[in-house]
Design a protein that fits this description.
275 residues, 37% helix, 2 domains, alpha/beta, Rossmann fold, 10 helices, globular, single chain, six-stranded parallel sheet
Length: 275
């Protein structure tokens, strides 16, 4: 029996990853299970050491620890090192190696809905690990203009300095914006999580936008989705990027290259193997 896990704060218990990965493993005949672990900020190092002690086969890391775990890893993949954030840990003996499948999963998700960012403009909300992955892959895909915005101007400038583009605090963002794609890489999507941010987004006048992506999912009321609907813009929530990054993670853990439909169907609770 192989055990895989996800490390987060209390949000670990709201993740779709345990059900998704467990379903995929069962369908592939793998004797395994995937469990959520809640970790306190001061216990991150001990949690990483425990992966070896408990014989965990592989781990995911999500908000808020995608950057915090890095000092406790033995090695980083090239992509993870460039991005400066990880979401996947491969465990080989006593070695913990960190990978970032968020970036390539996001690229796969965009491709699945026929959105090509080359030569276009992007607006990214957020400055954490998810925002870094998005900024990295959009830059790699030759997005013409990338604007990063967040609450902290210092953190905004850190992302811009690392990946290029322009920075703007929420206060300096302005209401009239040109962007072909808007990506929410913050942890906030519902008005009850941040009334201020909900009001900011509702007031935006985004010109020429083709796609709004919210990397969160399962919010009872989603102001990003409301904005997209009100402005007749295509909307994607975080379930599709989750499925595509999970496919990449599964390949790292098992060596098996499965079609994305396996993970999409697992998220949707669909037992069918048809796409």
């Amino acid at each position: 029996m192989k055990v895989y896990c996800i490390l987060s704060d209390e949000r670990a218990y709201r993740s779709k990853s345990p059900a998704m990965f467990t379903t995929v493993m069962q369908r592939q005949g793998i004797r395994g299970m995937y469990v959520p672990f809640k970790v306190q900020p001061e216990e991150v190092g001990k949690a990483l050491q425990s992966l070896k002690t408990l014989g965990i086969a592989g781990a995911n890391v999500t908000i808020p620890y995608k950057q915090a775990v890095i000092p406790y890893l033995d090695i980083l993949s090239e992509g993870a090192n460039v991005i400066g954030a990880i979401n996947t840990i491969v465990i080989t003996g006593e070695e913990l190696k960190g990978y970032n499948t968020n970036a390539i999963g996001f690229m796969d998700a965009l491709d699945s809905v026929d959105f090509n960012p080359e030569g276009k403009s992007a607006l990214i909300f957020g400055t954490g690990g998810a925002a870094r992955a998005v900024a990295f892959i959009l830059n790699w895909l030759r997005t013409d203009t990338i604007v990063v915005t967040g609450r902290s101007d210092d953190k905004v400038q850190q992302v811009v300095k690392r990946f290029g583009g322009e920075g703007a605090s929420f206060e300096s963002l302005g209401k009239d914006i040109n962007a072909d794609i808007v990506v929410n890489a913050t942890s906030v999507s519902s008005p009850d999580e941040s009334p201020e941010m909900a009001a900011l987004v509702a007031d935006l006048n985004i010109k020429g936008c083709e796609l709004v992506v919210d990397l969160n999912y399962n919010r009872p009321q989603n102001f990003w989705q409301d904005m997209a609907r009100d402005k007749d813009i295509r909307f994607m929530d975080g379930l599709l990027p989750l499925a595509y990054q999970a496919r990449r993670t599964f390949a790292l853990w098992t060596g098996q290259q499965l079609p994305p439909e396996e993970f999409i169907n697992a998220i949707n609770g669909n037992g069918s193997n048809n796409s």
